[in-house]
Write a structure and sequence with these properties.
Elements: H1 14-72, H2 79-109, H3 115-132, H4 139-142, H5 144-158, H6 162-179, H7 191-207, H8 214-217, H9 220-255
Helix pairs in contact: 1-2, 1-3, 1-7, 1-9, 3-5, 3-6, 5-6
Length: 264
């Protein structure tokens, strides 16, 4: 067994090896997604809380800078002007926080799959990949119906939707029969280079996040250390936010300015 999980065997052809590698790559991509979901289930609340506090600190610092600039120039602080300017500057942080919150919710609501479901999904996907994977069948990129069908297959496999994959296999068989010789054209250009490229892609997935999160998730000590680190970071941001709030209140009080703002 080599570092990518393959048996050290000789393949009958480059096409067979490429098919195996494509299926392996898509498998580890799915595994990486599953690992990320598990990681978010364990640490998502803390990660989101830390980021939300970070966003509040950034917003508070911008408010301090805005008010200080107005005070230095002897100008009146327009609340609407300040909020509009800061909200514009903070937009990318708000979007990122929203995405993070949604992913956290999705991860908590996601359900695991049985070994039977995963195994059957792999078998069906492998059969379909030999016929429709764009790196195997040149017609998949050329024919809109084949392209759409393959996208649905890839999505169903990522979600391990066994029932959907079974239905899509029936649809694929019917469509290929209708297309006949025009439904399959073997990709034969630069097979050796493509094989090496797919191997590199697999290695990259296996050695980078989120796949490497598995090292933390499978080790109770590392899991506890990660939670402790996130809790420490959260508490530090809470303290920093309190300092910024006090600083802003002193600034406004000293400048003789009355101002109201809403904390998100």
């Amino acid at each position: 067994m080599n570092e990518m999980g393959f048996m050290d065997v000789e393949f009958a052809s480059d096409e067979e090896e490429l098919t195996e590698l494509l299926c392996k790559r898509d498998q580890v991509e799915r595994e990486a997604h599953s690992i990320q979901t598990s990681y978010i289930k364990v640490f998502g609340d803390l990660i989101t809380e830390v980021f939300e506090l970070k966003v509040e600190c950034i917003k508070k610092k911008k408010m301090i800078a805005f008010c200080q600039a107005k005070i230095n120039r002897g100008q009146y602080v327009d609340v609407n002007e300040m909020n509009e300017a800061i909200d514009k500057d903070m937009m990318m942080y708000y979007v990122e926080l929203k995405n993070m919150t949604e992913k956290n919710k999705e991860a908590k609501e996601s359900k695991g799959h049985s070994e039977f479901e995963v195994g059957m999904a792999k078998k069906i996907y492998r059969r379909l990949a030999k016929k429709l994977h764009p790196d195997m069948n040149a017609m998949t990129q050329k024919n809109p119906k084949l392209s759409e069908l393959w996208n649905k297959i890839a999505e169903a496999y990522q979600r391990i939707n066994l029932e959907e994959l079974e239905n899509l296999e029936v649809m694929a068989k019917k469509l290929l029969e209708e297309l006949g010789d025009k439904g399959f054209e073997l990709q034969t250009k630069n097979l050796k280079k493509r094989i090496e490229r797919i191997r590199d892609q697999i290695n990259t997935i296996l050695t980078t996040e989120p796949y490497t999160y598995i090292d933390i998730l499978q080790d109770e000590e590392k899991t506890a250390e990660k939670k402790k680190a996130l809790e420490k970071e959260r508490d530090e941001y809470k303290s920093y936010l309190a300092e910024l709030t006090e600083q802003l209140e002193k600034l406004l009080g000293g400048g003789g300015i009355n101002i109201l703002w809403t904390m998100n």
